[in-house]
Design goal:
This protein is mostly beta strands. It is built from three helices and 22 strands. It has two domains: about 45-135, Sandwich (Immunoglobulin-like); about 145-355, Immunoglobulin-like (Sandwich). Strand 9 (about 145-160) and strand 10 form a beta hairpin. The protein is elongated and about 80 Å long.
Length: about 375
């Protein structure tokens, strides 16, 4: 009996069916089983509302709004951006954007030539929406009566020099953003000016700055070329001082008044003479035994600070390394010390810390040299 060849179309059909069965088997499905429905895609919703903080000024209606979406817990990877403008109620809504495994929005509003930026809460499948209020201000070129609400300094001996870590809170009491006055060498208008001790080098910018594109240092004054907004702004930075013959003068002056100046020094390391400051008793802290020096209501350009006299800085560094907590880096960890004290002062203020530390015997009277 003669055999007939199957038609090509039938062969293709059989091959396709076989391949489908193999694919279903690899996917753990039995032939004919219905496909699993795709997982739903979660979308986010963000409501942005601008609040005008300048009395009597026009609303932020029509201002441009930009939202940058970042992924991951550290918000390192950008997923893209969204743009809109504020409506007649100074509000805009971003809706329907994918949030995947979670995003963190960074919102920017351009108002009167100044960018106001806030980081919103994480948007996740459990919490995909958020409302955010951002306060904006009208701008001015008139210098406000800005001042240093607090200036806290930490001194640490290290390898023949002194590392100085500062946290400064600058306050603008007005209701307008100051865009700056005199022009700096980088061509931008200067706002905040902070005097550093003579010989300061290797200035490292931390919080509050926008890098060296908007900051200058001429060897004596650290200046900021960024708008100064109303309220309090924190600046954190550090630098190195090289003692001469074991001695160093550390004045902390600025062109604005300083409400409270506090300097923290490892105890029993240097012979210290306070200048327009008072010495408080030493205290045991997580960073070892520290002594605090304090001055209140420091007038502009007043060189309140410390004179340090110690011919053995290397030995001083060894002494700090042996303080409690040094075994795990706590005694000599400059960053940890500065941040720990900085967080405490940001929460309670220097005045409250003084109450805990022990009341001083005079606000600005010089104290005896401290061994």
């Amino acid at each position: 009996m003669a055999r007939t060849r199957p038609k090509a179309s039938a062969v293709r059909t059989l091959i396709a069916a076989a391949l489908a069965m193999i694919a279903q088997s690899a996917a753990g499905q039995s032939p004919g089983a219905p496909e699993a429905p795709p997982s739903p895609l979660t979308t986010g919703r963000l409501v942005v509302h601008a609040i005008q903080g300048t009395a009597g000024a026009n609303s932020a209606r029509g201002d441009a709004v930009r939202v940058e979406l970042f992924s991951g817990p550290d918000s390192l990877g950008s997923l893209g951006s969204l743009e809109s403008t504020l409506d007649e109620n100074s509000q805009t809504v971003f809706d329907g954007f994918l949030i995947g495994d979670g995003v963190r929005p960074v919102i920017s509003i351009e108002h009167a030539g100044v960018t106001y930026q806030e980081t919103g809460p994480p948007l996740t499948t459990e919490s995909p929406s958020a409302d955010l209020d951002i306060t904006v201000y009208d701008a001015t070129t008139d210098e406000p009566q800005w001042r240093l609400g607090s200036r806290q300094v930490m001194l640490t001996p290290e390898s023949g020099h002194i590392v100085v870590s500062e946290s400064v809170i600058v306050t603008n009491p007005g209701d307008r953003t100051w865009t700056g006055g005199e022009t700096a060498p980088n061509g931008k208008a200067t706002t905040v000016r902070l005097g550093l001790p003579g010989g300061a080098r290797d200035v490292l910018l931390d919080a509050g700055f926008h890098g060296w594109c908007c900051t200058t240092f001429d060897g004596a004054t650290l200046t900021v070329q960024m708008p100064l907004m109303p309220g309090a702004t924190l600046y954190r930075f550090s630098y190195i001082i090289d003692p001469t013959d074991g001695q160093a003068d550390l004045p902390f002056a600025t062109t604005a008044p300083t409400d409270e100046l506090a300097v923290f020094v490892p105890d029993e390391v240097w012979l210290i003479t306070p200048i327009e400051m008072s010495a408080l008793s030493a205290k045991e802290t997580e960073q070892g035994r520290l002594r605090m020096f304090y001055a209140g209501n420091v007038a502009p350009r007043t060189a309140a600070g410390l004179h340090i006299d110690s011919p053995r800085v290397e030995q001083a560094a060894a002494t700090v390394a042996q303080t409690p907590g040094a075994a795990d880096g706590g005694g000599a960890d400059i960053a940890t010390t500065a941040i720990t004290i900085g967080v405490a002062l940001a929460v309670v203020g220097i005045g409250a810390l003084i109450v805990w530390w022990g009341r001083r015997s005079g606000d600005t009277s010089p104290a005896e040299p401290q061994p």
